Amino acid sequence: MKKTFIYILGLSLSCTVLRAQETVYPAKPQQGLVFLKNATIHVGNGQVIQNGTIGFNNGKITAVGANVAIPADDVKVFDVNGQHIYPGLIAPESNLGLTEVEAVRATNDYEEVGEINPSVRSIVSYNTDSKVIATLRTNGILLAQVTPQGGLLSGSSSVVQLDAWNWEDAAYKTDNGIHFFMPRLMPRANPFGSSGTGPATDAVKAAMEKVASVKSFLREAQAYNAGEKHDETNLKYEAVKGLFNRSQKLYIHANLVKELIVAADFAKEFDIDVVIVGGTDAWMITDVLKQYGIPVILEQPHNLPVMQDDDVDQPYKTPAQLQKAGILFCISNEGFWQQRNLPFNAGTAAAYGMTKEEALSAVTLNAAKILGIGDKTGSLEVGKDANIVVSTGDILDMKSSVITRAYIQGREISLEDKHKQLYERYKYKYDLK
Fold first, then answer.
1. pLDDT at residue 10 greater than cutoff 70
2. CA–CA gap between residue 126 and residue 121 (Å, rounded)
3. Per-residue confidence (pLDDT) for residue 302, from 0 to 100
4. Which of 30, 160, 163, 201 is deepest in the core (most CB within 10 A)?
5. Is residue 279's pLDDT more than 50?
6. Which residues contact 136 (CB under 8 A, 6 or more apart)?
7. Domain 89-377 coded CATH 3.90.870.10
8. What is the pLDDT at residue 2?
9. Is the pLDDT of residue 3 over 70?
C-alpha cells in the first residue's frame, strides 16, 4: 500500500526530540522503494528538472524525471513540494576525522614522522565518532576525501561516506591517491643561515633538491614494480604501485606557477595521473594543464591572493576562469571543520562568473570525477548511489539553504549535530521561544 508523507519543515523541527550525539546512530541499509516528488531536481551535470520526482531502492537511484510513474503498492512517497533536491556534496582534501581539536595533540592523527611515507593510510585513522562530521552533513556534505599531511610524500587518501560505525563501514573508495606536498618554490632567504651564523640559504635550491628526492624515489619505485618477483617486500614501493597502472592518482599540493609546471613534469616523466591541490595560480597556465589533462582541486577560495600584484578578488574569479578554459576542477575548503562552508564557497564562485549549476558541479560531479568515484556518485542519475540532499532553498546560498532530508546510499541519515543541540540547550535555559 502506498504511503504518502507531506513533509512540513516547521512542524518537523518543532516536534524533533533532541538527542545527544552519542545516541544518534548510523542509519540501517535502505529497504523498500522510496520516492521524493514535486521538487526542483538539480541533477549535478547542469540539468535542472522542474516539478520532478526521484526514486531509489536498495541504495541505488531507480528513476529521475518530471513524469516518473510511482507504483501503487509497497512504496514510501514523500511530497517535498517547493523544495530542491541535490546530489550529496563532496569535500575533497580534508583531514576530517583525523583531528578533533587542533590545539589538543592527542586528538590529532594526520601526520607521520619523516619525509617519504607513501605507505601511511589515512583511512585506518579515520574517527567516525568525530563531533565535526555531523556539522558537515547538516549542510549537505555526505562524502569526504580524508587526506594525510606532513613531509613530502605523506601517504594515501581515501574517500569516506559520513554515516558509519567504523572506518571499514565508512570506506567509499580506499587509497585513491598518494599525496605529495611540494615545498614552496619561492625565494625566502634565511637571515640566520643554515647554522645560525653562516650565509643565507637558497630556499628555491633546497626545495628543488627535495623535489629531486621525490622523483628519485618514484623512479626506484617504478623499476621495483616493473619486476615480477622480489626477495624482499618494500612497503613504500608497493604503496605507490597504483600510480603506474593508473589505479591511483598523484595529488600534488602546489600553488605557484613554478610549482605547477614542476607538477606537470611529473605527469610527463612518469606517465601518471596528476591532480593539482591548491592551484592558486592555475588560471595563469591553463594551456599547460589542458595539454597534460591535469585537473585542479581549488583550495579555500575564500582567501586573499598570494601575490601582491594579483587582483584582490582573484581567488573568487579563478573557478570561472578554469571553467571557461575547459579545465576539470572542483572546490575544497582547507581543513576539517571549515568544510561545512563548502557549498557557500561554490556560491561565491557563482557570483563571480559561473552559473549556479556549474558551481554545483564543482562540489558534486566534478569532485567525484577527480576523486575517481564519478561512476558511483556526484549526480542524480539512474544506477548511481542514492546520495541525495533535500533543501528548502538554494543549497549554495547561506541564507536560504536549510537541509531537511539527506540520504547516503538510500539510507536516511540524522541531521542532528552539536551546534543544533547547543542552540536548543540555551534556548531552553533562557526560555526563548
1. no
2. 10
3. 86
4. 160
5. yes
6. 91, 96, 144, 162, 339, 340, 342
7. no
8. 55
9. no
Question: pLDDT digit string (tens) for 375-407?
Answer: 999 999 999 999 999 999 999 999 999 999 999
Residues 6 or more apart in contact with residue 352 via CB below 8 angstroms: 313, 316, 317, 319, 320
Residue 16 has pLDDT above 80, yes or no: no
What mean pLDDT comes out for the span 122-135? Answer: 95
Cβ proximity of 250 and 177 under 8 Å: yes
CA atoms within 13 A on the CB side of 23: 5
pLDDT in tens, 342-376: 999 999 999 999 999 999 999 999 999 999 999 99
Q: Which fold has domain 1-88+378-433?
A: Urease, subunit C; domain 1 (2.30.40)
What rounded mean pLDDT belongs to the chain?
91
Q: How would residue 11 be classed by pLDDT, with cut points 50, 70 and 90?
A: very low
* Cα separation, 134 vs 27, whole angstroms: 13
CB atoms within 10 A of CB 92: 28
Predicted TM-score (pTM) of this structure: 0.91
Residues 158, 242: contact at Cβ < 8 Å?
no
Model confidence pLDDT, tens digit, residues 97-111 = 999 998 999 999 999
| Residue ranges of domains in the chain | 1-88+378-433, 89-377
Give the position of cell 587582483.
311
Sheet of strand 171-181, all strands in order from the earlier edge strand to the far edge:
89-94, 141-146, 153-161, 171-181, 249-254, 274-278, 296-299, 329-332
Query: Who's near 212: CB < 8 A, 6+ residues apart?
Result: none
Point out which residues pair with 347 in neighbouring strands: none
